[in-house]
């Protein structure tokens, strides 16, 4: 697949880049995408939730009412879970939600996501650029030229300089990412995928295996 290369003014440069069929034209695997996205979201969870159980609450251990004959539930002490302010039964404990996936499955998921973007014509190739100074207004002008003002977009570059990062960080619906860090979730979580020429070369080389 070939795509035209645009400059930062939104003009067609007349050049074209080749998107490898082994990366951008595979047979998509929805289940692989599901697992990869599920893993990504699971890894974002802190897992620091905690509630106090019966043995962790302070309070008298005096038996409140007799064991039988009262007509209500048994309650051993003031920390009983059946009482307001009592302990919680089987409450959440700190845990790690992460799980492992093999490299081939993650690679297939990433290539499937890129294939969906390519099939829907949601990929724009932009010539290599860098911001001379951190200026949000100049970056907004680039987005306007590409008609991405109000479109949730992911801009993938071979390397993100500090000036470029500072220029884009306060713009809503725009995120920057290095090509080597491209993930399935990042691709699918944005309406448009903007690839620089250099990032296309890196993706073709690194992800085709």
Automatic annotation (TrEMBL):
Database matches in Gene3D superfamilies: 3.40.1370.10
GO CC, any one term: ribosome
Keyword terms, alphabetized: Ribonucleoprotein, Ribosomal protein, RNA-binding, rRNA-binding
InterPro entries: Ribosomal_uL4 (IPR002136), Ribosomal_uL4-like (IPR013005), Ribosomal_uL4_dom_sf (IPR023574)
Transmembrane segments: none
Keyword tRNA processing tagged: no
Region (Disordered) location: 45-78
Keyword hit for rRNA-binding: yes
Domain of life: Bacteria
Pfam (any one): Ribosomal_L4
Function: One of the primary rRNA binding proteins, this protein initially binds near the 5'-end of the 23S rRNA. It is important during the early stages of 50S assembly. It makes multiple contacts with different domains of the 23S rRNA in the assembled 50S subunit and ribosome. Forms part of the polypeptide exit tunnel.
Family: Belongs to the universal ribosomal protein uL4 family.
HAMAP family in alphabetical order: Ribosomal_uL4_B
Oligomer and partners: Part of the 50S ribosomal subunit.
Protein name (database record): Large ribosomal subunit protein uL4
Organism: Falsiporphyromonas endometrii
Designated gene of the protein: rplD
């Amino acid at each position: 697949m070939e795509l035209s290369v645009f400059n930062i003014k939104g003009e067609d440069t007349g050049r074209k880049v080749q998107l490898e069929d082994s990366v951008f034209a595979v047979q998509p695997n929805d289940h692989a995408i599901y697992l990869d996205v599920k893993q990504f979201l699971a890894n974002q969870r802190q897992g620091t939730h905690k509630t106090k159980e019966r043995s962790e609450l302070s309070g008298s251990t005096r038996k409140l009412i007799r064991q039988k004959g009262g007509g209500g539930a048994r309650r051993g002490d003031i920390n009983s879970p059946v009482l307001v302010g009592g302990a919680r039964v089987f409450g959440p404990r700190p845990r790690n939600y992460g799980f492992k996936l093999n490299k081939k499955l993650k690679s297939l998921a990433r290539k499937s996501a890129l294939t969906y973007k390519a099939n829907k014509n949601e990929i724009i190739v932009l010539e290599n650029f860098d911001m001379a100074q951190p200026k949000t207004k100049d970056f907004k002008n680039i987005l306007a030229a590409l008609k991405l003002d109000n479109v949730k977009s992911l801009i993938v570059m071979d390397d993100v300089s500090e000036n470029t990062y500072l220029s884009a960080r306060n713009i809503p619906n725009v995120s920057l990412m290095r090509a080597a860090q491209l993930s399935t979730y990042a691709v699918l979580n944005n309406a448009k995928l903007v690839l620089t020429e250099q990032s296309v070369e890196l993706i073709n080389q690194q992800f085709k295996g």
